[in-house]
Amino acid sequence: MRTSLKVLATAASLLTVTSVSAAPVLTSTNVQDQFFDNLRQYCGQAFEGTVVEDNFTGIETFSQNRLVMHVRVCEEDRLEIPFHVGNNHSRTWILTKTGSGISLKHDHRKANGDEDIDGGTMYGGHTIDSGWANAQSFPADQASKEDFIRRRTPQSVGNTWHMFIYPDEFFGYRLTRPGREMRVDFDLTNPVDLPPTPWGYED
């Protein structure tokens, strides 16, 4: 009996060591891989967008500017998509496979390339389910909520970002929260000239 217990203890110890020392492996569901592939096929292309919904009455409205998305960097587990609003080249969407889903971050830079700490940067969310090959949603994560509170925009803690991709039709970017909705659809049937390099990045 003691020998059996000793063998079991040794096996458990080896299993623990193996679990701790093993390198993490990035995984995602099949539909999340398909979502990435649906976007990645447009790598190197840019598309113009149109505001189809916006009930926000703040200082900046997307409807007053030309909107262009550029699928600029495409890696196996990471996509970088600058979102240009008129002459403002500060925004880049970053999608990353995390091992438990997909993360969306909004990288905001100043014209000199510095991170826009005061205005807010690297906020975003993470998928909480598999979603679909054509659509994924990203409720605000804890770090983003804490940053919203720090920047005195507590209404943003309820943010959820959504992305839709229908190949050969359109790509959609949508923000929702109680009482707030904004959506831009980009025409994938008509590529446009590439926009400038986003602020803080290099060719």
UniProtKB/TrEMBL annotation:
Residues 1-22 form the signal peptide. Keywords: Signal. This is Secreted protein. It comes from Aliidiomarina maris.
